[in-house]
Amino acid sequence: MSSQLLSKAVAIDGPAASGKTTIGFMLANRINYLFLDTGCMYRAVTLAVLQQGMQIDDEESVVKLTQKLELGIEPAGILGRDDGRLYTVLIGGQDVTWELRSNDVDVNVSQISSYAGVRSNLVSRQRAIGVRGQVVMVGRDIGTVVLPDAPLKLYIVASAEERARRRWLEREDRNDNTTYEQNLADIIRRDQFDGNRAHSPMRPADDAIIIDTTEKKLDAIIEEILALDYFEQQGSL
Ligand code: CDP
Fold first, then answer.
1. How far apart are CA 189 and CA 237, in angstroms?
2. I want to staple 114 with a disulfide (CB 3.0 to 4.6 A). Which of 64, 134, 153, 197 is the partner?
3. pTM of this prediction?
4. Distance between Cα 113 and ligand 1 center (Å)
5. DSSP secondary-structure letter at 208?
6. pLDDT per residue over 133-147, tens digit each?
């Protein structure tokens, strides 16, 4: 991939509900970069598998479905929806943005994401977007695998309790009733699965800057990121 184009890519990784998607979205808006949340792509494959009644452990069929999946991601404004979404996800033209956040998807997404064939297909789609440059890309393996040459890599963390609290409150806002304990258990389980899988396990790149969001306000975190050398060097952003 051209290093010139990648001179303007920001890779953001981190565990479940660490705040990386909100931070990536706010940062992209501030610096006028494209925003891509790769987690929604793994969630979309998982939803499609569930909708088709396919067995989660039927790896071969899941990979074939991924290769054929007609997946669209659009800025929220395009469909004129103003319901708190950061972007719209379409499968075969159908808006599935909120279905991707269901508990069923949360429970199954890590297993689907562990399949090499699923990852290679989605990583190619992510790189095709990355080569356009000026992108903030968020996930688990962006700094290590998808855009290893990105000049700025952030790894966003927060305590498991704080992350569970945030995810639980997000769901309460959508009238999706779960308990704090359920969210905590899911987050711990997913982190373990994502961090220990054979293909592209979640981990910070060696050159990633670790940002702990546990007791910080979002605006302060964005200012902290914008004060990093990378942005000083970009000057005219
Ligand atoms: O929002 P949250 O942090 O809960 O999760 P997400 O970013 O939407 O990602 C959902 C799941 O997709 C993760 O638990 C991983 O299993 C998988 N994923 C991945 O394997 N690689 C990525 N680049 C992004 C997500």
1. 39
2. 197
3. 0.93
4. 8
5. P
6. 899 999 999 999 999
